[in-house]
Write a structure and sequence with these properties.
With about 80 residues, this protein is α+β, with helices and mostly antiparallel strands. It is built from three helices and four strands. This is Reverse transcriptase domain-containing protein.
Length: about 80
């Protein structure tokens, strides 16, 4: 399904329920602020980052990209 937002921004939506049922999920513990601060006692510089859309920037491996390929009337996208 294709959704067009105000201003002409396009978003392509997929139903990936079947894929989600069979993928192997890896779990990572995200450290607390306290754990991070303790791990760098001599740090002098800190920064703030906005990771709101970070998942859009994560490159997946080739084998995984084959599972996310989809077809449209103008071509195939991976």
């Amino acid at each position: 399904m294709v959704t067009i937002f105000k201003g002409g921004k396009v978003r392509i939506c997929h139903d990936r329920k079947d894929l989600n049922r069979v993928i192997r999920r890896e779990h990572y513990k995200i450290p607390t602020v306290e754990e991070v601060v303790v791990s760098m006692p001599d740090a002098k510089v800190f920064s703030v980052q906005d990771a709101k859309s970070g998942f859009l920037q994560i490159k997946i491996d080739y084998e995984s990209s084959l599972l996310t390929t989809f077809n449209t009337h103008v071509g195939r996208y991976r």
